Amino acid sequence: MSESDCTPTIYKDNIDFWDRAWNMVKTPYTQMPDLSYLERIPTLLSDIKSAKILDLGCGSGWLSIYLARQDFQVVGVDVATHALELGRMWAEHENLSIDFQVQDISNLQFPEGYFKAVVANSIFEHLTFKLAQKTILNLEAIVSPGGLFFGCFDKVGTGPGEFYKLDDGSQIYTDKGRRGMLLRCFSDQEIKELFKNWQIEELTCLENGSRILIARK
User: Fold this and answer.
1) What parts of the chain have a pLDDT lower than 50?
2) Range of 211's domain?
3) Of 61, 106, 114, 211, which has the most beta carbons under 10 Å away?
């Protein structure tokens, strides 16, 4: 199936999937994930504490919370309204100031150069290649010169499930539990293509097959 013919409907179904998934969560889950690279992030951001950081596709905000605990100014965006409500509950409990906003990451609405850094943990896997390109172009506008991008691109789509594929390799799930969810595994070459206008400082593969990307605008 052609990506260009059906992306709008497919992407809406993907958003609807995340709305349904988050609406089933009643209270914030406040356990930080066990990620080998987590402690690297504040170190990389240590020289920009006075500037705003964008947590792209923040979900219920664990990474926003993690950075806000260390006095970073964080704006967390996600399409799932209830996920952000959970994030606000968590932040209020810890007396942290985080600006959570409902926004579509493929169509962000911020002024030019508004952010000094972007963190994106396991987010692009839920975009087609064209939507990922659109998102990166948007980031190029709202990140100031010299700004940092830190992202984890997960290895996805290797497990069982019922799905069909778009021409670009994106998998659209049709089984009851994940109906509408979009998954796409980006190759190293595709990641480099997405960030062709950035200076890539690091692109490394973790033991589980996920890739860490560090780039400067």
Assistant:
1) 1-5
2) 40-154+185-216
3) 61
